[in-house]
Amino acid sequence: MPSGDADLLDEIARLRSELAARDAFLSVVGHELRNPITPILMHVQKLRRQDQRRQLTPEQLGPALESLEAHILHFVRRATTLLDVSRARAGAFAVDPRWIDVGQTVRASVDHCLPAAEFARCAITCLAPAGTIGWADPLVVEQIAENLVTNAIKYGRGAPIRVTVAEDGDGWDLRVEDGGPGIAEADRERVFARFERLLDGGVPVEGFGIGLWLVRELVHAMGGSIDVGTSDLGGAEVRVHAPWHLAGHANTTTED
User: Fold this and answer.
1) Quick one: 113 and 233 in the same domain?
2) 209 shares a domain with 146
3) 3-state DSSP assignment of residue 146
4) Which residue in 72, 229, 238, 254 is a FRET match for 186, CA 20 to 30 A apart?
5) Which domain does 83 fall in, by range?
6) How many domains would you assign to the chain?
């Protein structure tokens, strides 16, 4: 076969593979973004009915709007995750570091996850003392922490979760541990693949299947490392290590 024909076949195979990956991603997107829209719409319809019937008192309005706001923020987080995935895949995710209190930033992320943890009956212990100062992008650190805690809640329903921030040699560590089923050693690299979701009782856990993949992209953008092990809580432990200083200039980008 002439080399030109072989190159053409290779290019066709590559395009087919990219098209299949895009279709799979869009299928997951459609499913995952439709789910949070339903309760938002139901909540708005309920408020309209109560208002039309003059059943909505001022005392009820505040909590109702707070609940609606929580649903909308949940949707926005999902949409933002999709944007981050697209940017990371394109190698255009910019890291904008500054001096931050890593412990305080992680605690704020854990606070965002508390409603979901309470619903899943997961008690979270956060050992993130103030004063762990690092040169990092606060939004990146928040995303890493929130994704890891959300993942621990998802797979460790009803089990305790422990989040720890500590200094470690040339940088700082973030550890998220849970008392769930854990991750088998054979799966510890696979969990970082795109669209990969481990099974819970033989059934895939709902979600994009890109949480840990995105976390690894963000960690690498900070010049750090990430690995998975076994926690003394009985489940999984994900450890992120980031250097005190990001190498290079203030803005670095990921590369595929």
Assistant:
1) yes
2) yes
3) helix
4) 254
5) 3-89
6) 2
> Does residue 109 share a domain with residue 11?
no
Please give the chain's pLDDT, 256 residues, in tens. 566 778 888 888 888 877 776 666 665 566 556 656 767 787 788 888 888 888 778 788 888 888 788 778 767 766 766 666 666 655 556 677 889 999 999 998 898 888 888 888 999 999 998 888 888 888 889 889 988 998 898 887 789 999 999 988 888 999 999 998 888 777 767 677 655 454 444 434 444 455 787 788 888 888 899 999 899 998 999 999 998 876 443 443 333 3
The identity of residue 168, as a single letter, is D
End-to-end C-alpha distance for the chain, whole angstroms: 31
Residue where a domain stops, chosen among 67, 89, 111: 89
3-state helix, strand, coil in the chain (%, to 5): 55, 20, 30
Contact 252, 92 (CB under 8 A): no
Tokens of 131: 């004063």
Residue finishing a domain among 89, 123, 140: 89
Strand partners, 172: 167, 242
Tokens coding 213:
């993949």
Task: With H, G, I as helix, E, B as strand and everything else as coil, classify residue 127.
Answer: strand
